[in-house]
# Entry
Amino acid sequence: MLIYLGRRLNLLVITLLILCIASYILAFLVPGDPLINLSGNPSPSADQSAQLRLMYALDQGYVAGFWQYLKLTLAGNWGLSLTSQNPVFQDILQFLPASLELSFYAMLISLLVGLPLGIMAGLKHRKFADMGILSVSLMGFSVPVFWLALLLILIFALQWGMLPISGRLSLLYEVPHQSGFMLIDILLADISDKSAVLNDAIRHLVLPTLSLSIVTSALVIRLTRRSVINVMSSDYIKAAYAKGLSHAQVFWRHGMKNALLPIMPQLAMQFTVLLTNAMIIEVIFSWPGIGEWLIQAIYQRDFPAIRGGMLAVSSLVVIFTIAVDIIIRLIYPLSKRQFHAQV
Amino acid sequence: MPKSSFYEEEVYPSPMRQTWNEFQRNHIALGGLWCLVFFLLTSLVGPMLLPYGPLQQNTDALLLAPAWAANGDIEHLFGTDALGRDILTRVAHGCRITFGVSFILVILSMLVGCSIGAYAGMSRGIRSSVINHLLDAIMAIPTLLIAIIIVAILGTGLMNAMWAISLALIPQFIHQTRDIVRREFHKEYVTAARLDGAGNNRILFHSILPNMIEMLVVQGTMALSVAILDVSALGFLSLGAQSPSPELGAMLSDSLETAYVAPWSIALPGAAIFLMVLSINLVGDGLRTALKNRLTQ
# Structure
């Protein structure tokens, strides 16, 4: 286990280092002065310029420069955004929780919907229910997420006027920024009309969460169904039946654990897919998250922000993946057989 | 008169034929294949059959409803958009761009990915360890995210989006090919070929490749559906194909402003993407099942 942990941590450090190197090289590849791209100061005076060159060690070769950059990055000094002149790192800290909140709820819903449906389809393999669930999931899996979001807006927000089109909270309400997670912030905040605010926040959440979770539930259903089918046709299930156990006993005692544990890593991986889809959804719903922020930065060619956003999102995904890997290894002993990294 | 057979000869269909027979038994997958052929024809000959150009504006018919609506006109079967461009024409051209681009870039990344994967599968020791570990880390990042990052570096545009998505698709192919090659290398027919004196390259091209092709096709269809979704998503975010271009995703983002008065200008291009991806997924699923059935027989 220790060796495994060492290998994984090693991989984590190396991957993050590569991401850092890539983001450093980015400052030289993209058009414009590397100094401006690194610091985000659009027109430094001669004095400032000399100071910044010293700070980023630009005159001492790439290796020293990268070392300096690495130190600054770890210290949370990611430069300024070219358009807003805000520190990039603070911006990311502010916008990232909104994306995480959205993805987290969507993941929760898709697991709550996808797992039972997948298990049901797997148990009724080649029956009518299986065909129905499978075709619905195939459709959910093929639908482009942005089109789905637009259709939901057209139907629920524009035609029926039931739900708000965009944003995170009605402009009437003001919630102080504490953790960045809206629902937690509302519960923590000291405001008069708490239940009305909460209601409004949830109404804003419905459409983005729904459009995200439809696609992910379809994936979860497919994964679960395949795994349940494989497990239920295995020998030890036949042995359990031969012992005279009922369907329910066989499934709850033998089938369930063995079907769900092996697909845990893949299920957890859906979170990264979800996060990417959330970036598109954020643009459609004007959700103030990291995706909307990063894509605005790309439109405006705001290189310090692009660099920071890219680094933040990809490190988040990599850290998440490796953490899931380690947790799975802890709770699922069979995965020790595959020593090499499998994602 | 029924054909009489003189010889009591047993027929052994070739592996490809067996897969096809298995595939045919799945009617839904067969339907998907027909749908895919329809889209292929649409993107190949569709634009030639239509009387309008994709950018041609008809100022007399702005925001015309589709022909089946009460105020529609048969001259514009799918209606027109805010600039009076015929939506059917644009969808046909859009299928050509979206489908064609995705097809080309899947082929491209398949070639590159398989070469690297075969190399990684045959190499041992530190080299293979480095490739494996890096690859596993990259595989964890969704393709669309990689594509967005690469577009952020290269700048927007359809060409850059193509580069970005094909680069993002390569790791999957490397992973798949590496696993297959590594697995097949331990099998007996490879050992037999090796005893005959075949070198690594000969084994790869003459023994393993024929066994690998079907699995690569399955992987290719999966990659194709991902590629179509990614190309249109980038188009929708205006990071890929830019506005006047009839790429399906770009069309969707074009018609956002008139979504309320002309919902069909959103619904129809999106439905085209949806059906295209659905048929590809059906075919891919059918092929995978057929292959599995054949191998477990």
